[in-house]
Amino acid sequence: MNIGKNEIVVELNDVNKWYGEFHVLKNVCLRVQKGEKIVVCGPSGSGKSTMIRCINRLEEHQQGDIIVKGTPLTNDLKNIESVRREVGMVFQHFNLFPHLTVLENCCLAPMWVRKIPRKEAEAAAMKYLERVHIPDQALKYPGQLSGGQQQRVAIARSLCMNPEIMLFDEPTSALDPEMVSEVLDVMIELAKEGMTMLCVTHEMGFARKVADRVIFMDKGQIVEENTPEEFFNNPQSDRGRLFLSQILQH
Amino acid sequence: MPAENSKNQNNVVATRWIYDPKVRGIIFQAVAVACVAWMLFYFISNALHNMETRGIATGFAFLENRASFGIAQTLISYSEDDTYGRAFIIGLLNTLLVSVIGIIFATALGFLVGIARLSKNWLLSRAAAVYIEIFRNIPLLLQIFFWYFCVLRNLPAPRQSMSLGDAFFLNVRGLSIPAPVIESGFSFVVGAFIVAIIAIVVLRKWAKKRQYLTGQIFPVFYSGLGLLIGLPLLTFLFSGMPLHWELPELKGFNFRGGFTIIPELFSLAVALTIFTAASIAEIVRSGILSVSKGQVEAASALGLRGGLTLRFVIIPQAMRVIIPPLTSQFLNLVKNSSLATAVGYPDLVSVFMGSTLNQTGQAVEIIAMTMAVYLTISLVTSALMNMYNAKNALVER
Amino acid sequence: MVVYREQPSLPSPAGQSSVAAWLRKNMFSSWLNSIVSLALLYVLIPQLWSLIHWAFISADWFGDNRDQCVSGGACWVFITNRLNLFIYGFYPESEHWRVNWVYALTALQVAALLYPKTPHKTILTGIFFIVYPFVVFYLLYGGAFGLEVVETHKWGGLMLTLLLGIVGTLAALPIGIVLALGRRSEMPMIRALSVVFIEFWRAVPLITVLFMASVMLPLFLSGEVNMDKLLRAMIGIILFESAYVAEVIRGGLQAIPKGQYEAAKALGLNYWKSMGLIIMPQALKITIPSLVNTFIELFKDTSLVTIIGLFDLLAVAKAGLSDPAWLGYSTEAYAFIALVFWVFCFGMSRYSMYLENLLHTGHKR
User: Fold this and answer.
1) What are phi and psi of B345, to 5 degrees?
2) What ipTM was reported for this prediction?
């Protein structure tokens, strides 16, 4: 376990969120160091997706602070934009833009948000597409690709903005089983290169290989935080034990 | 009869021709075509016989005859001595006029209301919803009657017109507005306008290239707008303002000079606009909603701001869904313009299928010509739409 | 390493779900929003108030003649006085009971057929399509069973509008089904004939169709010089409507998964049996909401028959306006007719939305 020598890139302090009257995040506290890989798991409805979506302001929290690389997340649009430039997100349903080619999908944000010249943007995009092992599909449209290929494009698209932190919201849950490993492999390589990653996933094998910390959430709060070996072999909470017994049966 | 597959000597299965689906198909189609042909023959021979017994002329020669009726609004010159053929053209032009006006305003209003319907402001979105639900569920003819008989009939007589300055006069005979009279220097202004358009095209190309090379974004939209308005305007001022307005003046009981928009055209255009805009608003709304929330989230997560997301993600995808039913609505508007007969606006149906038919009695030719016009408009639009769809379909496996 | 204790769910902070919070979120969330909200309130509230004042508060409701309309508001006396005209047209008053029977029976059957849970639907449909038209004809026209004949030129008002709409849609259904099947046929001639027929009727305005039916139809048929005007209009409407119904049904046929066609073939059913037993029942079920929408469109379009001289609801109102005893109340008349149409159309469209939700939960989209 790292003892905070590295810079803290994401900080959640007593974050509370309500959907109407439903208390969906209860006093969530989290500190993520640079280069850390964190896997968030838990039963559905536990608030894990909501928590990471709060980090890039796709959801708003009502109480508490969220600070990303020194910038506090408030209603200030400038802050939100600067946070979104540093944080990349990969969605469960890929959300590629179907009317643009793969290359155009990757170049859109760098050209229009970071104002990078087109040639540079395209070169960088090809570099990232090679990193996710599909440079040959650059001129195809998302509709022509398989699920696994689309998700890898989505990862490349986020990487093209050179984020310091990558958020993954159940990236393999919508994939057919035979395509899950190609996406996980890319994520493992990314982890090895030192990217700070927060990953909501059910893939426990991935967690064991890559995670520095596993965070178990249930009913809106963090119930357990531990190293993968400790959590999987010796869960300390009843709910953690129950959850593991349910998912590790397969 | 030799069987179809008698190559194999051992297993000859004599396919009796009457059970062969291909043969059956051919027989069926032949019978169907024969029935249709017989029906057409029956109708046509009856028609010819009946027309002869009633002394109705046939053929298109009547188009050369003198029309001898007046028309309230003519975009090109017309008098009672002109032919029926010319009256046909006048009616057609009037139909096109009200259709174009209707399409332009209905689209603008429809888009506004559709976007308002999606607004986060509860009042605005409810008001838009009420507008849509009211005007979609009341027949168009009733709306036309309402505007024509209730609103416009109650306007004052020309002598007591409602006026704006000395230029705009609203009364029961119509809306009289100043007409522009173009003087000799105006061609420079037109030239400046064309130059502005060319300049904008060049500017766009240059800005795009610059962005590819250096990444800097040039505000093409605003500078283009400035050019489009500024350049002709400056030329106008510097060439001594070669335009003056002919103001409508009250002479006797009516206004002379300027343009008069007759109440028939006004009520028809307003009713068509409001009615069609309600349907267009629904189309726009469902088009925008069809873009999944995930697309917007992905764009936001990448750092794209609202305007950029709208331009690159939402509008391209929404337009694909909006354009086909939108063209349908345009066609409906053109067809609905035929209701002009009800208030006496001289459109194609009213002038040709109304007055001309009454006078010549040649129903078959006249109705055929009128329907042919609408058919052409409809088929051309469908063909264009199919081309657009084929070109813009999302590429999938 | 670190284990947390369970925390209770707290209620949301004050101002999350109150009226003030709702207002702040929905109407005043930003400067622009606030300005828009205030502008709308400023414009709409006085208009709404004066409308309510005119239509209800200072209006006159009952009476015999225009002298009763003294207060400045709406003169509904005109409407209440002529209500019979609006509902029955020029149908003789002593025979109104016949029209009432038709109204009641039709409403009953339509409600029974459209309500999803009625039993014995097939028998009911058979009765409605085959037996009931004769019943309606004899009730309305007469000439048998001791009923006096009422000529069609006396039919009018709401009764005529409903008749045109319902008969138009129902009679167009079988033709539309045949056309839809024809358009999807693999035989090129059949497909060509269907496409030509459908595209023709969809391209021309209803007015030209009505004119054509009114003026040209007698020419096409031998003998009949004075064919009943209502019948002519009805034929035109049915042909016109059949093209739109065909397109709706074609959409339904396209929505049936290919596997259904294949399964029917695999079971050995020929074309007509597979259509009749497997495909059509499913297609018709899915298309009922769209068919209701088509009916609503036709219901609104029946107002066009005033132009060829039939007295539907709108025409009756307009005719009433030229009565010298009632000059100047066009606004009331049109507002009332608009309300009647609106209630019908809005009600039916809500119903079709309800049906669509109901039917699609059972059918994979």
Assistant:
1) -75, 130
2) 0.86
